[in-house]
Specification:
Layout lengths: L7 E8 L7 E7 L6 E10 L2 H9 L8 E2 L3 E9 L11 E4 L9 H4 L19 E9 L2 E6 L8 E5 L3 E3 L6 H4 L5 H13 L6 E5 L3 H12 L4 E5 L6 H7 L3 E3 L8 H9 L5 E4 L4 H9 L7 E4 L13 H4 L3 E4 L7 H13 L9 E6 L3 H9 L5 E5 L4
Helix pairs in contact: 4-5
The chain binds cyclohexylformamide and zinc ion.
The site of zinc ion has 6 residues, from loops.
């Protein structure tokens, strides 16, 4: 490549400060250093976590940054020591790494690799080390990825090589939301055939959780959302029953207990709201019910009565659906190509990177499931 070893000037959406529209800027992207890969980003989804950082997060040191962490692209060049990737490879950036060497990578039950940004700066959700500059200033890389940019640089332990036949403008969704929801059902809850499940929140993560419950053989999947417009999509992914908590005067957990003769086997919270987390737990059946926290927030504590767990319920959480990222993403890409996993149905809008602020507004007002931004031509 003519650009290998050189600084690339390209376009990126820079979030200079919280609560402000992002700004399209020309940035400089340094060549990849040892064990790093420079990637031309082709497409990126807009995930709620991008908005969380911009509008809700703790905002400690997390700016200026380039948001975006649900992308797909093509390797432009590789740094010294990289043997696994070559220019032209199709890849998905990973916001949790898989170094394969740390205690967590070696343990079969965890995907919490110790090597990535999340182990050093989970509060600010930004990586301090960066290959970006703009107007003489260092620009942080959000969640170690930054996919709202034509080019980015990522350590190879946080990049997954995928099937060259995969359409990047669809499989980019496997970089966050779809793996997060699907894996929470399949890997973390370990939903069983014939079981009854409840999914709270029908955004992309919740819909993917519904799809995971169905794939695992659940017989009944109760979708819970305060916006009934989302129920139609819920049906597409396999939901069998629909509950709008606003239609009932009693707590939604009581409604679910009545519908299921004592509570669901598995519940998944896909909102990121501590009151909903409690409802999801309380909706489970005593004795064996399992409730999984999938939605993200670090702004409030949660609470519940100890009897809920003493009575035999299990409360657990899931990050990136429990998938070991470098292993899991290529497998999910294969599952999409084999039509075992849906992706197209999540996409409600397609835009260009220049329209990123419109995409952010849509998401902010709950008017989309996923917008795909096209970033660079393939
Ligand atoms: C995120 C949620 C916040 C912590 C890291 C993972 N999921 C994707 O957006
Ligand atoms: Zn995300």
């Amino acid at each position: 490549m003519a650009t290998a070893g050189k600084v690339i000037k390209c376009r990126a959406a820079v979030a200079w400060e919280p609560n402000k529209p992002v700004v399209m800027e020309e940035i400089e992207v340094a060549p990849p250093q040892a064990n790093e890969v420079r990637i031309k980003i082709v497409a990126s989804g807009v995930c709620h976590t991008d908005l969380y950082h911009l509008f809700e997060g703790k905002h400690k040191d997390g700016f200026p940054t380039v948001l975006g962490h649900e992308g797909g692209g093509i390797v432009e060049s590789v740094g010294p020591g990289v043997t696994e990737f070559q220019p032209g490879d199709k890849v998905i950036p990973l916001f949790i790494s898989q170094c394969r060497e740390c205690r967590f990578c070696k343990h079969p039950k965890s995907n919490h690799c110790e090597q990535g940004w999340a182990s050093t700066s989970p509060d600010v959700m930004s990586e301090m080390d960066t290959r970006f500059t703009c107007k003489g200033q260092k620009i942080l890389q959000f969640m170690g990825t930054s996919t709202f940019s034509e080019y980015t640089v990522i350590n190879q332990m946080a990049v997954a090589k995928i099937d060259p036949a995969a359409p990047l403008e669809k499989v980019c969704l496997l970089g966050c939301g779809v793996c997060t929801g699907y894996g929470a059902a399949v890997n973390t809850a370990q939903v069983e055939p014939g079981s009854t499940c409840a999914v709270f929140g029908l955004g992309a993560v919740g819909l993917a959780a519904v799809m995971g419950c169905k794939a695992a053989g659940a017989k009944r999947i109760i979708a819970v959302d305060i916006n009934p417009d989302k129920f139609e999509k819920g049906k597409v992914f396999g939901a069998t029953d629909f509950v709008n908590p606003k239609d009932h005067s009693k707590p939604v957990s009581e409604v679910l207990h009545e519908m299921t003769n004592g509570g669901v086997d598995f519940s998944l919270e896909c909102v990121g709201n501590v009151a909903v987390m409690r409802s999801a737990l309380e909706s489970c059946v005593k004795g064996w019910g399992v409730s999984v926290l999938v939605g993200w927030t670090d702004m409030a504590d949660f609470s519940a009565r100890p009897i809920q767990l003493i009575a035999g319920r299990t409360w657990k959480g899931s990050l990136f659906g429990g998938f070991k990222s470098k292993d899991g993403v290529p497998e999910m890409v294969k599952a999409y190509l084999a039509k075992k996993v849906k992706l197209d149905e999540f996409i409600t809008h397609n835009m260009t990177l220049d329209q990123v602020n419109d995409a952010i507004e849509l998401m902010k007002h709950g008017q989309c499931i996923r917008t795909i931004l096209s970033i660079s031509p393939q």
